Structure formats: C-alpha cells, structure tokens
Amino acid sequence: MASTVVKVKESLLGFDSDAGSEARRSFQKHCVVDESTGQEFLSEDAFVDAIAPAGEDFRKIKRSQYAILFDVADRGRTDRVTLEDWLVFNDLLQKPDADYEIAFRVFADPRTGQVDVDTFKETIGANKSRQSVSFDWDGHWAALYLGDKKHRHPMTYPQFAQMLRALQGERVRQAFLHYDKNGDGYIEPADFQTIIQETAAHKLSDHLLASLPSLCNISPGSKISYANVRAFLNVIRDMDLVELIIRNAVGRSPDGKITRHDFLDEAARVTRFSHFTPMEADILFHFASLDQPAGRLGLMDFARVLDPSWHSSGSRFTDTGGISTVAEKAVAGTTTVLGSLLVSLHHFGLGAIAGAFGAFMVYPIDLVKTRMQNQRQSRVGQLLYKNSIDCFSKVLRNEGARGLYSGVLPQLIGVAPEKAIKLTVNDLVRGKFTEPTTGRIPLWAELLAGGSAGGAQVIFTNPLEIVKIRLQVQGEAAKAAAREGEEFTKRSAMWIVRHLGLMGLYKGASACLLRDVPFSAIYFPAYSHLKRDMFGESPAKKLGVLQLLTAAAIAGMPAAYLTTPCDVIKTRLQVEARKGDTSYNGLRDAAVKVFREEGARAFFKGGVARVVRSSPQFGFTLAAYEVLQNALPMPGHETAPHAPTPSQSIPGLQEARTPLPYLRSRNALQIILDLDLGFSRLKKPDGAATGHTWLPKFRSAAPAAPVTAAEEPRE
Prior knowledge:
Elements: H1 2-13, E1 15-16, H2 19-30, E2 32-33, E3 40-42, H3 44-51, H4 67-73, E4 81-82, H5 83-93, H6 98-107, H7 117-127, H8 140-146, H9 157-179, E5 186-187, H10 189-200, H11 206-210, E6 224-225, H12 226-237, H13 239-252, H14 260-270, H15 278-288, H16 299-306, H17 326-374, H18 388-403, H19 408-433, H20 443-472, H21 474-483, H22 493-505, H23 509-534, E7 541-542, H24 545-562, H25 564-574, H26 587-598, H27 607-631, H28 660-675
Antiparallel strand pairs: 1-7, 2-3, 3-4, 5-6
C-alpha cells in the first residue's frame, strides 16, 4: 500500500533524483511492514529486489548472491534492513571505492575495523565450493600480505583491498601447480577449463568458457603451458583496455574489421605502460575468430570475448563491420529501420490518443468560443447570446448535450497530425540551435522553433478547422432559420468537404497562420521556461503530472489570449455567411469590417473561452500522455531502472549508463566471488563474533580510505 501511495505521489508531484531521495523511494517501493510493530523494513528477498535490477542479466552472477550485500546492510544482525540501515548502505555505495570497501566489511571485525586472518581463512573455508582447488594460505605468497605463521597480522582496509587485487592470479597459479602432476609446466586443456571456470566464470561469456580447451591449438602440441595461462589471464584482466584498443582500431578501419597487426599497432598508440605480447594478441584473436577464421574481425566477433553477457541471441555491442555478409547487413539494417518506425508509430499513437483526450475534454468550451466569435451585431436580432455562460446554457437547453459536441469528430481526427507535426518540428528546430554541452538555447531560437511548429501544423489543421467550425454553428443557424420561417438542412462533414473542394478547405489559411505561428512561438518557450525556472526541472528532478499540467496551463494563457484577434478573423472567414450576414474577402477586409461594425472589443470575443479551453487542453493532453507512456510501453522496449543501455557504434570505450551505486554493488560481488564462486548467503565460521560486518552510522567513522599501492605486476 505504501508503495502505491508513493508512486501516485511521485507521478503527480514529481521527485528529486538525488541519492537520498532515490534511496528512500526505493525503500518505500520494496519494504514490508511488521504487522506487530508497524515497522517498515527490507527482508532479504525485498533487499535483493531493491539492489538487484529486474533487467540485469543474471547469467554470470546469480541473483541470490546479492544476498551477500544484505549481511553488509544489516548492521544490527536482525535479519532485517531498516530505513536507517538502507540509507547508510546507500551512502556507502556513493563512495568511489565502495566496491572494495563492501568486500572489506564482509570480513572485517566490527570492533577493530580490521580483518583477522584466522577468521578470514575460516570464512573462506566455510563458503568454499566443493569443486575449487584448496588455496594455500600458509605459503610464500600469502606471507607477503599476511605475514608468516609466526608473525601474522590483521589486515587494514588498504592491505586487504590490494591483497584481493592480486588474489585471482595466485589462485590460478596454485591451481595450475595442482593439475601439473609431473611438474613439466603443462596441463591438459580440460584442466585449464576447470581452473578458469572455478576462478573467473562470473566474468566471462559462455562462448569463451565453452571454448577454453581450444587454447591448446595456438601452439604445437596438445597441452597448455603456464605461459599460455598467464597470457590468457592478462587478456581478461585488461579487458577494458583491450576493448578500447579494438574500438579505436575498428574506427580507423574502412570496412570496420581489423587484423592482429592492426590491433598491435593501435595498442602501441594507446598504451604507455601496458604492452601486449604476441601470445596475448594470438589468444585474443584465437577466441574471437573461432567462427570467423578469415583473420579480419569486426566488433561483433570480439563481443563474444569482451562481453560477459554475450550469447548467440545478442550482445551489448553494436556492429561496425562484424556482420559477415551483405545479406546479413541488409537484414540487420531492415530490422533497425523497422524498429525505429515502430517506435515512432508507438509515440505517434500515444500522442494522438492523448491529444484526442485533451480535445474531447474541452470541446464544449471550444464550441462556445466559436459561437461567440461568430455572433454578429450587424442587424437586429442577431445577438443570440449575452456571454459565454449564456451561450453554454442555451446550447445545452436547445440542442442537448450532443449539441455541445457538434463537429467533434473532425477535431479528434485533426489532433493526431497536428500534435505530431507541432511537437516534431519544434524539437527538430530546437535541436539545431541547442548547445550540445550546456543544453542552452537562445530565446530567439526558441521563438523560431515554436513559430515554425505552428506554421507547419496549418497544413493539416486548417481543413479540419473549417469543417469543425461549420459543423459547430449549424445549431444556431438552424434556430435562426426556424425563427424566420426558412428551411434549413444540416450538412455532414463529408458534404462540407465536397462542397468546399481543395481550395475551399484552405480558406482562411492566412488567418490560421497568423494565429498558430505566434501562439506556438509564445507557448513553447513559455512552457520550457516555466518547467525549468518555476518548477526547477533538471536532470536530477523529474516533474510530476500536476506540475506539468500547471506549467502547460499557465503557458497556454498568454498564448491563447494574445492570439484571439487572429482567431476571430479566422473564424469569420471560415464560417459560411448566412443571408444578411456581412461577408469578408481576406484578412484585411475582415479586420476592417469587424472593427467598423463591432468595435475593437469584437476582436477579443471568446477570448476568455479560448483561454479556458487552451490551458486545460494542453494540461489534459500532457497528463494523458504521461499516463499512457507508463501504462502502454513499447513492447520489447521497457527500460528497467538499472538496465544497461546498449553501447553505441563509435570508437572508444563505452561508459556504462547504469547508475553508479548499482555498478559498485555488482563490482563488489565480483570481487567477493574472486575469492570463491561458492559465496552466496554468507556462512560464518563457528565461534565468529555476532555482527561480523562493520557498517558505522556515519561515514566519518568508516575505516580510512585506501592509499595508493603498487599493483601486482603482469607476469
């Protein structure tokens, strides 16, 4: 229930996306309530739902393994995470070194803020998978970090983090020695596959894991040497750098494909301290070219090595030359174009429905506005309505509720192209003049964009407006004819279209332009500035429906009222003159005759009704569009809150679009799983202190930040 209330509140009022607010919203969304105390908390399952994104690919890290982080967040060891615990945990995730600090706090003693070596070893043993090779914590390598048996010392945070950094390489070395039974420096391909699956399966693609035994084919013989193993580890350890080099090299290539020679050339340009050996390049190209032995590889070929989530149905990499055949490229291009078209049609459909809803809700006001604007004072008895309220009541009394919606169908039909063209042109022109780095746009460009949008929409709206207006005034024309004993025949929309012809449908188009160009030139800049300056919209703050509705309504007021004179002239030109009515021949003639016969006030007839109609219409339209976007997302295009965005096909390493707190929690899990893939829900060794994780209430009480330490050298 609390989650529903929060969602409704955010939808209506908007929200700030700062870390604290985001954490509170996430807690409210997933929390459960203790019925006996009324306390809100996260159970282990609820915590996993909150921290593990629904759209994440859990092929490499089991979703259940995120429960390790529950032990870090549960400071009181009560098997529940309170709001305070959750806020502290999220504050930890904001730290730049959160991934290593979380791993440290899993093992650190809460009383000393250090990792006791014996407890650490016992915890590793309790969580060790049955298949993994036992690690020698009493050997020479461990003594360098922990001290030998006689001089063991607890590890501080910086020491522990650096030990974890080098641990995977040592695990592989010890496992190699375990399988090298005769000590000749070679192991069987199956043993190599077992070693990598036990130490790095959570980081590598299924394709790469399944192909590991083929490493023996890069050199004569049927076994794998330790040099092969170290070269392979260096490649996967520097995978981010490898991807950068590949993307840069692919970007330089005319056909988007590269050779081993191209890779090493680009590596020489990019690197200064890390140099790739010939064997490392051979290993990279070997695994990338298993299904493409031609020697020239594209980005999609390397994806099966670089992308841990790669599988045959897709990858986060986009192709810049890796699709092998022209036919495949044609199919891929067609799919992309079709997908873009479907997305555009989806947006168009939602905009049409939302626009039709907004127009329908205010249509009676629009009808009253039209009747008032068409009311003439040129002869006695012409004044049917005293004011807008009198007009509304008389239409309802004489023509019924259906009379208030006379001509509504053409209006609804016209909304779709009108909204689509107006919004598209405005966005297109604004995009041309918007500064890419700051997002700023000069006022004159905003006015130009809005005016261009208003001008473009006239192509569709003028024919529909003239049909709508003639249908709207038929009721009063019928009453006037009956009063004078004349026969009156109601006309359908199709009859009006056939009667007017193509040229007639654009009668009053100049007046329509005179109205719509300034209206949009006023409305769009006003709406944009109101959202930003009045309601504080920013990348960190999303506005709610009520705020958008209010901004749209306020922006529509001056735009609607100031353009009322143009709307009056347009209405007079487009309405079919009855017997005895003044007829008009163009803008100037209409303006002069209206002023001479009815005075200056006539130009603002229906102005209030126009404001009352336009303001809520835009509000209803935007509110409906927001609701429709959430209720009817594009099938297959639902974006999970933390789902990674596909990389773009440009040279250079692609940064993740996923929020940093999630990336850090995922990285922390990878670091912990480097110890052993058997970790899931942490199992404490017998006799371990209750509350072995240490998560202080305030960041200032946290252990010292790690100091710079030398990395483990590449062998």
